[in-house]
Design a protein that fits this description.
This protein is of the alpha+beta class. 17% of the residues lie in helices and 33% in strands. It has a single domain, classed as Mog1/PsbP, alpha/beta/alpha sandwich (Protein Transport Mog1p, Chain A, 3-Layer(aba) Sandwich), CATH 3.40.1000.10. A hairpin with a 4-residue loop joins strand 3 and strand 4 (71-74).
Length: 236
Amino acid sequence: MNLRRGFALLIPVVALLLVPPSEAQVSPGQATSSSSSSSAQHVRKPTSGADSRLDTGSVSNGVYRNRGFGFTCKIPEAWVLRTEEMNAQEDEEAKTDTGKLAADAGKAGRVLLAAFSRPPQARAEDVNSSILIAAENAAAYPGLKEAAQYFGPVTEIAQAQGFEVVNEPYEFVLGTKTVVRGDFQKAVGTRMMRQSTLVVLARGYVLSFTFIGGTDDKVEELVQELSFGTGAKTTR
């Protein structure tokens, strides 16, 4: 079973978060992006291929809602959204040498929500807290039967990025769902970056929820904003 690329959607986020403050720059147009507010933002919906069944959800009044998968996630006030930028970046990187369209090459996965406490490349000394929710077509990974299996490549890639395992994957109940969670941390200069990733399998997709913060308490605050079965009905 080859799940190595399953965690690839997170790598650009982690890379941005690890940029030293002295080297961070805001890319042209980024500060004025239409996705820089969490007050009312509709996430781009794919139109064809494997993503045709994928409910990408939407953000309204600071809450991301996905009725198809039956969960909500509250976004802290004043955070910025970079969902469309993340998907555009993934589409660009998914192009093959033969010129295959990114829309076809990227069918297996989609970022549903990418939210940051500040623009990813803005200068600051503290850890840029973030929430990343992604969905990947489980059919792309033959042999994947349980969410815990996804943590093989998750751990491998996290360690390659300099993270160490704090807690091995374990199950717990969150609302109406049993999720699998793994915890990691990484020293960034004098700071410590904490990361918790939660995974569930639903409707033929792997859903991953990654929360990053500078303290354990901050990460837990973000995790508590995720809710399954509240105000959303899962469709089959």
